[in-house]
Amino acid sequence: METIGQLNIIQELQKLNDNLSLWLTENNDGQTFEVLTIAKNPNYDRLIDRLILNEIRPLLNKDISGFQKIVETGFDTENQVHFIVYENFGGQPLNEVYEYANLLSLKEIAKGLDDLKKDNRQTYIISPKYISVNTNGTTKVRFIGLFEFFKFKNLLQTEYLSPNVVEWLNDTKKPRPNFQDDIFSLVKTFVQYIQGTYNSEHNVISEILKKSLCVKRTERFSKYHEFIELLEQISVTQKLTLKTNSQIVRIKTQPQYEQDIQDLINSMNENVWFLVENKISDGKEQITGQFSTNTWNGRFFIDEQGYIFIPFNGCRNEKNDRMVKNGNSFLSQFSFNQTSANYNCLSFFANKFAEQNRLAELNKSKTQLVKLWQTLPDKEREYIEETAFKAKFKSRETTTNGSNIKFQLVEVSDKSWVRLKELKNEGVILFIDDQKIGKILDFHPKENFITIKDAFCSIDEISESGELIEDVRQETSQFKKQVEACKKFEKTDVVNPTLCSIMATPETTAMPNSSYLQTWEYENFREEVFNPNLQNDDTQREAVLEALHHKPLYLIQGPPGAGKTTVIVELIRQLIKRQKDVKILVTSQSNLAVDNVLEKLDEINQKEDADLLFMRLASENTLEKENIRNAILPHTFENKLKNWVTETELRAKSYFSEHFSTQQKHKNLVEFYDFYSLLDKENDWSKFNNRLRMSQNYLKQLFENAKDFKEVKKIFEKELGSEFLKLKNIQRDWFAFLGGVTVKDGKDRKKSMLNNGSTEIDFLTAMMLQTNIMGATCIHIASSKYSKVNFRFDYVIMDESSKASPAETLVPINMGQNIILIGDHKQLPPVVTREEAVKKNVKTELEDNGLDFEKAFGESLFEKLIKAFEADESKQNYIKMLDIQYRMPKQVGSLISKYFYDGKLKNPETSVIPDYDKQKHHGLTLKKDTSIIFFSTSQRENPNDNDNKFNRQNKCNVQAIKELLEKLNVLYSDNLTKPKPFTIGIIAGYRGQVDLLKNSISLSQYSNFIQIETDESGKHKKTNLIEINTVDKFQGAERDIIIYDIVRSSKGQSNIGFLDDYRRINVAFSRVKRLLIVVGDSEYLIKRATLNPNGKFTEFKLQQIAKELQEQGLVFNQIHEIF
């Protein structure tokens, strides 16, 4: 090898084994680096990928005391090696230059280990061979994060490992190594130096050696600070003589404090953190900020001569933990001296100052970004309200039938009369202010009046003049919720404020410390999954495990058929297993995606007798339109409450039947007691006697001698028993209470409320408090219906997040402590408004006439985040792509992978699903064995579309699709006898073509694709197994056979339009489970179609696919060539 990545090799420093080498390299600027190379090998590639992702990249470019800094990681395809680039500080292995060992280095390493432990990172390669030291005594631990790999390759120096770690190497079921073992290895490495330099009988030295090197781990140091505090007790002068560094910065203070500041400087030479402010100082206009050591803190100023001025009288003798933990502070690598220096630090701090200003600008851009996000929904709301029907009236009167009301209008425009006709046909209800008036019966433009049919209110409740309006609250509510979410986000008025910076500026915001996963946890988790299918899918299993630990934000990219729902369900089960009262929101832009997850949970509850408590929240409009699956309907709040009330009453009645069977036989007497119990015992004696006179003789005889209610009570007690009567009274009150749980009693109350300590809550809130999982769309969860609930979820799991706009995504995100976004930015993006008036208003509001709408609003928050995380190696362990698809035939899967996923999406291994090809076969005998067919219209009489950009249609393609359907209907004559009949999806990219297909094709003639089922009442229900729709409507769905209509075609060269968007092609093709048929003019697509010159896409994927299919002989002009 001569190069590694972009670095030139100077020499090999260390050959650890045949697969592992350490090199000295340099870049084109002459900077030198050390590089560790690991040869690619299938036996350990996954281990290396995982270690680099989870243990090495999060530490990139971080200054960790006593550890060699990691600069870069990568894979060299030419040499087929993984590589890790480290800083070069001229070090040699400690075992070769032991005379350079020093106690200060031991302490520096201990501090670094302590900081790593705080991030739950422990177990490092600590031994003389793998610790490097230079001639100045600077010492660094090498190969951070590679302990598991060195263990795998038997490269650990076992003589420096604690006894229990040696045992663990031979039996991994024994307790794993921890930080106490790191302390053992560290002291063992330096023990020769310690014993040779200090008196072992010294109390401090003796205690360090004794407590560090105990055979029993439980007898060693229990915390790093105990170990470090003992090291601190060794004389400062000894440490200072050992501490040398090539970059020494001069410290100055006021003359009267020059003697006093020495202790502070000594402390700075151990550890000092600086926080540079983004404003220069008043007066001298110097770079300034705060500093903190382990024992001192104060302010500093950078003089133009390159020294640091510290006003000692303003310093405090304590550590400033808050400053140290600030994400913008940094640990200095300089040495400091009061009298001499060899380094001018002005340029260094000037760069830090520039960086701080850049961060301040980014914070400003964060505010501007949130304003951008909220402007679009705000202007969409305004547009709907402005264009809604409004008409002022000057009088109103009832018509002859008394229930209709006639309104005399004032100056109504022609446009409004047209809209009024639409409203009448749609059965829309008109309002006056918030008062519901009724539907339109009739209207007369010439006479300027409108008649409302069967008004909901009397004429006296309507003012003599006013304004009739179309109620658009349902349409505008979603936009209002988005705007409100943006405002809350900007103010950080959210459940987890940490998320605000990550979401808005992911490029620069560091992720908070999260639970660190070790390799053994990945290995053990294979046996912990509920769904055994995850044992064979590494990325699905790893996505679940990492989502549990990598907080507060984790991204899962789910390509078509890769098992997003499977992962979500497993994740939910694991969360509940770990925390019984966990609160989870399952959300999405669509009802379908929410129901997919809840349906799986329902199946698990039934099959496994699991107790996964979930509730579906939905609007009345959603329920009325039957947009929720039948299997989920019993789990809506309304039905859950209704069923609970019914079941509770039945249980109460059943209890009485079981425990009071004798009394229950006296049905008439029990009913009479029910009547009696409701009477006013002071005033209703006559009512009692009147009822008695009308009762059976049996009752008359019982009560004929009773003179008052006291005697009546005694008779009831004698006949039915006092215990029965007591419980009967409780049952009566309980039933009355249950009857009021849904009855409104004022604005924010129900007739029956529950006491929750100092407050009252309704049954909705109470049931939610007892439920682990809520399912709702990302907009509905913010409904005013739940205004009293105050949602705070431990986890928000949002599916199809790549389809939602940033403002939509913020609605549920604001409610979550931890967020898991699942989507695929290689599929359909958010829908951006087509209304030019809205676009104009947005540009005016933002004062930006050149605003690119697609760029500003066409990118989802999921896509923004995943791109930023991919570009930042320290965040790459917060994303996971599911990399095996289980939906499509392998031929289609390979095509999708090649053109849309850079070859990263795989088909299932035969060893895992041996009959996969059989499962995905279409069952037809084709003249060419294939799962993909391009049915070309190029040789037909007129293959071109109508060239109408507002209503694009292609009649030739419609005819070709008809021929295909006729043939498929014949070939699948036994379709309805299959356990699960095949389905067909016909997808077109243009709404005009979809309308033409629906109007031209009578689906009823394809009898083998019409399923007839009989319901419980004996009625026949027909289900058409063929569906025609747009690409957008098909996302998230799948069909056995997909027919994709390209539509576009012209005689000459022309722009392909939005078919240049490969994401739409990806969605259309990847819906298929068995057979993909593409219909269109192949010659036009391959030879004459061009990309949009002003578009965002530089590759014509659809054209590339068509060329490949032609090369493979899969383009057919006649139907007899196929079947």
TrEMBL record:
It comes from the Bacteria. The keyword ATP-binding applies. One of its GO terms (molecular function) is hydrolase activity. Keywords: ATP-binding, Helicase, Hydrolase, Nucleotide-binding. It holds the Pfam family AAA_11. Residues 858-1082 form the DNA2/NAM7 helicase-like C-terminal domain. CDD domains: SF1_C_Upf1. PANTHER family: DNA-BINDING PROTEIN SMUBP-2, DNA2/NAM7 HELICASE FAMILY MEMBER. Belongs to the DNA2/NAM7 helicase family. This is DUF2075 domain-containing protein. The lineage of its organism: Bacteria, Pseudomonadati, Bacteroidota, Flavobacteriia, Flavobacteriales.
